[in-house]
């Protein structure tokens, strides 16, 4: 195996692992010998992810609501108890909201977005960083969005929350880089995940319309985003810190 993609003796937490990026990343890391702690609120989806793993014995699963700080702390404890270390954390869990202009957004929508998309990342980072400081190194990858580095018409609360993820990422990179604890964010363009479905844009017609916004004239495939995650998380990639990585087919080049 190429040493850049060899995750043997690495331990990774992945939130939102019952589907989408989380599931695909779990499978890809497990194929490369990584030990896993996977969480989600979807118990059946999480169990299905586990069944798809090459080495399920290297995986622990937890039903966790990421908006709960207790859940974040429990995930870290599970990693340390089961595998003795925490080298990677991927804060991937997130939700979208139905399309609505800013003047039509409710307090409930904002609360839901910030509880899951912001607090879920912030609480995760809090306890992940504490563990990584104790062991002297670690790498956190937060899943933001192109909506986190640009505007998102009809997705204002989601965009605000994903901008907050970028802010947390950059702040952590500056605060903890000197301790060899790094933090980066990935910002995907539209991909065929549950977020697209729950945002009301999951039909093939809508996907085609969304793809027009990319110079490549299509939305991404899940594996295209996950491949960038793998490269970013590579044990050999040790100097990347504080970056917001746009994986967008060239949208940000315009």
TrEMBL record:
Keywords: Oxidoreductase. Pfam families: adh_short_C2. PROSITE patterns: ADH_SHORT (PS00061). It comes from the Bacteria. InterPro entries: NAD(P)-bd_dom_sf (IPR036291), Sc_DH/Rdtase_CS (IPR020904), SDR_fam (IPR002347). The keyword Ribonucleoprotein does not apply. Belongs to the short-chain dehydrogenases/reductases (SDR) family. This is SDR family oxidoreductase. It comes from Glaciecola petra.
């Amino acid at each position: 195996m190429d040493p850049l993609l060899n995750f043997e003796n690495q331990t990774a937490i992945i939130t939102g692992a019952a589907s989408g990026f989380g599931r695909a990343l779990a499978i890809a890391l497990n194929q490369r010998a990584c030990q896993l702690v996977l969480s989600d609120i979807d118990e059946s989806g999480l169990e299905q992810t586990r069944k798809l793993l090459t080495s399920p014995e290297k995986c622990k699963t937890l039903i966790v609501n990421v908006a709960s700080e207790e859940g974040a702390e429990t995930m870290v404890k599970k990693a340390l108890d089961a595998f003795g270390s925490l080298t990677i954390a991927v804060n991937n869990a997130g939700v979208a909201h139905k399309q609505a202009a800013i003047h039509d957004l409710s307090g409930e929508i904002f609360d839901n977005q910030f509880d899951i998309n912001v607090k879920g990342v912030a609480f995760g980072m809090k306890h992940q960083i504490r563990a990584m400081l104790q062991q002297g190194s670690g790498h956190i990858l937060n899943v933001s969005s192109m909506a986190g580095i640009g505007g998102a018409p009809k997705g204002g609360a989601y965009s605000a929350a994903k901008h907050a993820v970028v802010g947390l990422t950059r702040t952590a990179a500056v605060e903890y880089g000197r301790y060899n604890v790094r933090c980066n964010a990935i910002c995907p363009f539209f991909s065929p995940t549950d977020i697209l479905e729950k945002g009301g844009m999951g039909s093939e017609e809508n996907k085609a319309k969304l793809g027009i916004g990319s110079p490549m004239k299509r939305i991404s495939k899940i594996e295209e985003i996950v491949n960038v995650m793998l490269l970013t998380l590579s044990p050999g990639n040790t100097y990347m810190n504080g970056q917001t990585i746009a994986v967008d087919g060239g949208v940000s080049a315009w």
